[in-house]
Amino acid sequence: MADVVELICYPVKGCAGTSMSDALLTPAGLEHDRTFMVISEDGVFRTQRRHPRLALVRPTVSADGSRLTLDSADTTSGYGTVRLDVTTSAPRRDVDLFGVTFQGIDQGDEVAAWLSEFLGTPSRLVRVPPEHDRIADGWTPGPSGYADSSAVHLLSRSSLALLNRRIAEQGTPPMPMNRFRPNIVVDGGFGQGHRGDDGDWAAVPHIEDRARRIGIGEAELGYAKLAVRCAVTLVDQEAGVRQRREPLRTLAGYRRAASEGVVFGAKFSVVRPGKLSVGDEVVVHEWGDAEL
Predict the structure, then answer these.
(1) Is a pLDDT exceeding 50 seen at residue 198?
(2) 247 CB contacts (<8 Å, ≥6 apart)?
């Protein structure tokens, strides 16, 4: 049997995540997930690929989404905290996400100044407009905020354990789960179709690749695509510093998809919204062949 062991929301795209014991899964993912985004002055989204210090920005959003607080995990500098009343009525502006134009609501000069100083480059903060209607593609298309693609990223501990065994063979320390920035982390077998030698359900690495329809708590997820990995996985999420090779070097040796590059974990769309909790059983209702 597989259970949810972590739920992580990332209110501001590219910034630190917030672990939760319970969460509402909305049609566009965990409530408040990737609702905000840091952009350049000309509207292009900022990412840890070029700005690894984003990992040190710790957002906190109120339950109703009306208040946002940003503070810094960089204890060596006195950046302090910025708090803002979130606006959804300000004028919209164009924002660029992977070359596609969407709309964003600018959150004002105070938070822009804080982010600009922290990142060392002019930056602004925008919020997804209520009328945002982006549909991410994949096997199961679905709504998405400012996430890279589909609304939910799911990863199993068994997949990470296999990666870390292979990394250890290179004499490199293990990777923590936060390098991959999942929304849902599961542990154990997926409840159907994969028995170990002792007759118990086995925790099979990368079994999430084959799960096509998943029930968790009150919600249901539909498989969209494999999660393509990029240079963000090289960023130490505690230090906000980019490392040199791992985990991409090791992943490239056994997780390279023919058309997509290096993959690790899976993306899902929300088929049925509902409440999720750590400890919920993960039940796979439909299986398919892995795309790898």
Answers:
(1) no
(2) 163, 167, 175, 179, 229, 233, 234, 264
Question: Tell me: the pLDDT tens digits for 226-261?
Answer: 999 999 999 999 999 999 899 999 999 999 987 779
Tally of CB atoms within 10 A around 91: 8
User: What CA–CA distance (Å, rounded) separates 203 from 190?
Assistant: 7
| Cβ contacts of 57 within 8 Å, gap of 6 or more | 12, 15, 16, 70, 71, 72, 73, 115, 118
Arithmetic mean of pLDDT over the chain: 93
Mean pLDDT across 93-99 = 97
What pLDDT sits at residue 196? 40
Beta partners for 155? Answer: 185
Token pair of 279 as six digits: 């400890």
Three-state DSSP class for residue 256: strand
Q: What is the dihedral of CA 30, 160, 283, 286, to 10 degrees?
A: 100
d(CA 272, CA 202): 27
Residue type, 183: N
Q: Which of 28-37, 256-265, 275-284 has the lowest mean pLDDT?
A: 256-265
Dihedral angle of Cα 40, 44, 47, 53, to the nearest 10 degrees? 0
